[in-house]
Amino acid sequence: MVVKKAKERFASRHGGRLFCEVCRIDFEVTYGTRGRGFIEGHHKRPVAEMKEGDETRVAPFALTCLVLGVLASAGGGVERWHGIRRNGHP
Predict the structure, then answer these.
(1) Is the torsion defined by CA of 78, 39, 26, 18 positive or negative?
(2) Between residues 30 and 60, the one the model is more confident about
(3) CA distance 65 to 89
(4) Is the pLDDT reported for residue 84 higher than 60?
(5) pLDDT, tens digit, 9 for 90 and up, residues 32-66
(6) CA R_g for the chain
(7) Whole-angstrom distance, CA of residue 45 vs CA of residue 82
(8) pLDDT, tens digit (0-9, with 9 covering 90-100), for 64-77
(9) What CA–CA distance (Å, rounded) separates 6 from 72?
(10) Which of 7, 12, 56, 69 is least crowded, fewest Cβ atoms below 10 Å from its Cβ?
């Protein structure tokens, strides 16, 4: 539910578009209607760092492509990858 709300909020702020916040890939632009709405939602702060009682909210989510989502999960979190600003995967 939180990821769905994060997508809705992001789309409303970006003219209805969903794209990776890091590399800027827009799957609908790249793949047509098959790519519409395709984007991953990831915690900016790793879940492992959350304390008991912390709540998951929409604001600390980043929308990323699958590649950068996997890299973020593997180490360093999403914030580590925000220096990449290319159109497409790194």
Answers:
(1) negative
(2) 30
(3) 8
(4) no
(5) 999 999 998 887 766 677 788 777 665 677 898 88
(6) 13
(7) 13
(8) 888 777 777 666 66
(9) 18
(10) 12
11-20, 38-47, 54-63, 81-90, range with the lowest pLDDT: 81-90
Task: Tell me whether residue 41 is exposed, middle or buried, using C-beta atoms within 10 angstroms of its C-beta: 0 to 12, 13 to 18, 19 or more.
Answer: middle
Residues forming a β-bridge with 42: 62
3-class DSSP state of 69: helix
DSSP 38-51: --EEEESS-GGGPP
The residue extents of the domains of the chain are 1-46+83-90
Q: How far is residue 42 CA from its own chain's centroid?
A: 5
How far apart are the C-alpha atoms of 57 and 6, rounded to whole Å?
9
